[in-house]
Specification:
mainly beta, four-stranded antiparallel β-sheet
Length: 126
């Protein structure tokens, strides 16, 4: 059973910083990419940042220059450093992983698919 657990959300003033963490655990065969999405009230869920197993990164235009995604492959953990936060960054942030889990016997991979964390609230307000 694969599980993604996020941490690091909270309330911060405009201009402040937060660092989100997401750890993937369970029977994992291979991780192809991990990333962060966010969803604000009345808005569609959008990609914030993603990083592949090879280190390639992708950012939403709205966060370029302010957010940095990184990954610790040994720990199956992805981080999102968020600086210069703005009120419009307020949203629930969801961790996402593109991976193959091991089958129930631990002898081979299941089909590649995406997994989601439960989300962590980030609120930027005075």
């Amino acid at each position: 059973q694969v599980q993604l657990v996020e941490s690091g959300g909270g309330l911060v003033q405009p201009g402040g910083s937060l660092r989100l963490s997401c750890a993937a655990s369970g029977s994992i065969f291979s991780i192809y990419a991990m990333g962060w999405y966010r969803q604000a009230p009345g808005k569609q869920r959008e990609l914030v940042a993603a990083i592949t197993s090879g280190g390639s990164t992708n950012y939403a235009d709205s966060v370029k220059g302010r957010f940095t995604i990184s990954r610790d492959n040994a720990k199956n953990t992805v981080y999102l450093q968020m600086n210069s936060l703005k009120p419009e960054d307020t949203a629930v942030y969801y961790c996402n992983a593109d991976l193959q889990a091991l089958n129930d016997y631990g002898l081979g991979p299941e089909d590649r698919r995406e997994y989601w964390g439960q989300g962590t609230q980030v609120t930027v307000s005075s």
